[in-house]
């Protein structure tokens, strides 16, 4: 499309396929809301910073899917604004997890590795299923792409939680758990910035005036 910028920031102004898109969002919303309750409770009981961070990520994603449902089918500008809000939410989440991880360095306790491993595996299965379902929307506008990025980052984070559980079990230390929480914070910060960047490009595209149409003269006018 003429007038689009580089780095995959601008997408054609087309509405998402309403039926498939809404169904995928509803499924993702239910899965993420349920996993937030399960993983959040387990994270608090086991003392795992990584599980708590992952559970809050589930909560943030559930809220993001709800926002996406609200703007599905709207004009590009509104979808870009929603994506901007979601990107800002991911950035805030990344900052919060960074602060929590730093606190855990001084005040945290060693988490329970079996609980971490079991919940990490359950979360991985849930997120991989959602990511596969949303894979076909990964190249859409900023709003659609943000949903895919959330699911992708979640699946990566779940693998990291399981690796942290192995590390905690093998060393008896909380450091693997804190390291994974730090990685998840970095993923949220990077993903949030990526979404904000693309949304800014789409907002500029939506606000740009249409290209002038070349004047056309009739045959009679040219003969004069």
From TrEMBL:
Its main location: membrane. GO terms for cellular component: membrane. It is found in: Membrane. InterPro entries: Cation_efflux_TM (IPR058533), Cation_efflux_TMD_sf (IPR027469), CDF_Transporter (IPR050291). One of its GO terms (molecular function) is monoatomic cation transmembrane transporter activity. Residues 25-199 form the Cation efflux protein transmembrane domain. SUPFAM superfamilies: Cation efflux protein transmembrane domain-like. Gene3D superfamilies: Cation efflux protein transmembrane domain (1.20.1510.10). Residues 204-224 are annotated as: Disordered. The chain crosses the membrane at residues 23-42, 62-80, 87-106, 118-135. It holds the Pfam family Cation_efflux. It is a multi-pass membrane protein. Keywords: Membrane, Transmembrane, Transmembrane helix, Transport. Coiled coil: none annotated. This is Cation transporter. It comes from Caulobacter endophyticus.
């Amino acid at each position: 499309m003429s007038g689009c910028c580089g780095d995959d920031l601008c997408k054609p102004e087309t509405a998402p396929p309403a039926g498939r898109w809404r169904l995928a969002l509803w499924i993702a919303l239910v899965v993420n809301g349920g996993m937030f309750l399960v993983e959040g409770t387990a994270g608090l009981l086991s003392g795992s910073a990584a599980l708590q961070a992952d559970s809050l990520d589930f909560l943030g994603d559930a809220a993001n899917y709800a926002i996406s449902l609200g703007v599905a089918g709207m004009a590009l500008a509104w979808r870009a604004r929603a994506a901007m809000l979601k990107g800002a939410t991911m950035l805030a989440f990344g900052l919060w997890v960074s602060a929590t991880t730093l606190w855990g360095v001084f005040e945290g306790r060693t988490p329970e590795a079996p609980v971490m491993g079991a919940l990490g595996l359950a979360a991985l299965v849930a997120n991989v299923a959602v990511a596969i379902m949303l894979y076909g929307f990964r190249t859409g506008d900023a709003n659609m792409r943000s949903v895919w990025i959330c699911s992708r980052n979640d699946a990566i984070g779940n693998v990291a939680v399981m690796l942290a559980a192995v590390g905690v079990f093998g060393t008896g230390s909380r450091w693997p758990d804190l390291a994974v929480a730090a990685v998840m914070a970095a993923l949220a910060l990077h993903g949030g910035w990526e979404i904000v960047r693309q949304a800014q490009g789409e907002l500029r595209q939506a606000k740009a005036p249409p290209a002038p149409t070349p004047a056309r003269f009739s045959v009679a006018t040219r003969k004069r």
